[in-house]
Amino acid sequence: MKTLLLLRHAKSAWPDGVADHDRPLAERGRRDAPRMGAYMAEMGLEPDFALVSSARRTQETWALVAPALGKDCPSQTVASIYEAEPGAILAAIHAAPQECGTLLVIGHNPGFEDLAAMLAPAGDADTLARVRSKYPTAGLAVIRFDGERWAGVAPGAGRLAAFVTPKTLP
Question: Which among 7, 35, 62, 79 could disulfide-bond with 54, CB atoms 3.0 to 4.6 Å apart, if both were Cys?
């Protein structure tokens, strides 16, 4: 079984004169990212490998999530998932190390919302509706697949196990 964790970057700032790719996290994002990492650790959702968009806000999100996980996790910066369509994100997932059981991808919307809907049409009806209606910053979708290979992850093959946002955390 494979578990895919789709974590949208935490809340970013919009400083004047800064290119989109270079936008940093806002104060709220700096608070939410480690909380999401702690939640992941508490729920046993520690990734074996992480794919992180090249954008500054995703890199900063990872830098705050990683220490909260409770174990070391290798990561790779993947420029192709910056502001990507679902197909480009799926291609990066297919290329993930096969020995990785739980894969974390940190990226952007609307690609994540569309990818989650495409990969996981099954799951709790309320959870599915929430992930399809709004995928807020620092939102985390947990999608499980029966297969043993990331290359086999395909549309409709997953089950949405959970969708957690900073606002839903205690």
Answer: 79
